[in-house]
Amino acid sequence: MTARWSILAGSVAGGAHARAGVSGQDAYAVREVDGVLLLVVADGAGGRRYAAAGASLAVALATQVLVALVRDRPAATAVAWAALLDAARDQLFRRFRRAARALARAAGGFRPEDLATTVTVVVAHPPWVGVLAVGDGVVVVRTDGGDLALLAAPPDAAGRPPGATALLPTARAVADTRRLVARLPDLTGLAVCTDGLDSLLVEYDGTRPSRPGAAAFGQLFALVEAPDPDPTTLTRLLCGRRVGTLTDDDRTLVLAVPR
Questions:
Q1: E-strand stretches of the chain
Q2: How many CA atoms lie within 13 A of 8 on its CB side?
Q3: With contact defined as beta carbons under 8 Å apart, do 191 and 253 qualify?
Q4: Does residue 220 register a pLDDT over 90?
Q5: Among 64, 165, 45, 58, which residue's Cα sits nearest to residue 116?
Q6: What is the DSSP letter of 226?
Q7: How high is the pLDDT of residue 20?
Q8: Structural domains in the chain (count)
């Protein structure tokens, strides 16, 4: 089947990781199944021993779960989309906890919580878009006329204590999961990023995220819509000096536009 989406994705280690000569702790995956777009982005928790492995595990499991669900139960109503996302959440949480416990027993010397990670999932089949997010990932949609909206916004920074972000496989992740279904007949673009980019791509009203940055996303979506987009463009942009001076965190961004 011909692909129905144009995609650009990039992920680079933050400055601290690069200077230490280690890889980043983000992971992502992009799949298209029968015209349904699956985007999964994860950000391993800083300071956790196996955060990178946790992010990769979350992405792999979420992708497996979603591919199976999309093939088994195509959704055509808001209720069906909500049920699909609930099933994905339950299966992902259960499988991640089981895998984390098994790895901890097999390897010894660490706890399942050492694999802690955020995870952000987007499932799109226009006019429907579903979002499932644990932690502080960001999801932006663009509609006709270039209008932008935050489907999953970064949390308000005011008064957030250290360690406040919800993470797999903790019990708190269940209660703090964000689940949203939107019907967008005029959808023209999707973007998902980790929190390493929110200060560059999201405008704030004080400490509160208010809207996606129109200028930044105008330029980014133009890259995807180029006649023959270079697949390395986004990675080179994220590695650039300008971005590096503005954020020292790992940074991952996935852009998609329907063809």
A1: 5-12, 26-33, 36-44, 117-125, 128-134, 138-143, 147-152, 178-183, 187-193, 202-205, 208-212, 251-258
A2: 23
A3: yes
A4: yes
A5: 45
A6: S
A7: 64
A8: 1
pTM across the whole model: 0.93
Residues 155 and 161: beta-carbon distance below 8 Å:
no
User: In sequence order, what DSSP letters do the residues of 18-53 get, joined into one string?
Assistant: HHHT---SEEEEEEEETTEEEEEEEEEPTT-TTHHH
User: Is the pLDDT score of 217 beyond 60?
Assistant: yes
At residue 56, the pLDDT reads 97
User: Pseudo-torsion of CA 189, 195, 200, 204, nearest 10°?
Assistant: 90
Q: Look up the domain containing 228 and give its range.
A: 5-258
Average pLDDT in the chain: 90
8 A C-beta contact, residue 223 and residue 234: yes
Q: Which of 171, 160, 83, 169 is nearest to 123 (CA)?
A: 83
| 8-state DSSP, 161 | P
Give the number of residues written for the chain. 259
pLDDT value of residue 108: 81
Higher-confidence residue of 174 and 226: namely 226
Q: What is the CATH number of the domain that holds 179?
A: 3.60.40.10
Count of C-beta atoms within a 10 Å radius of residue 135:
26
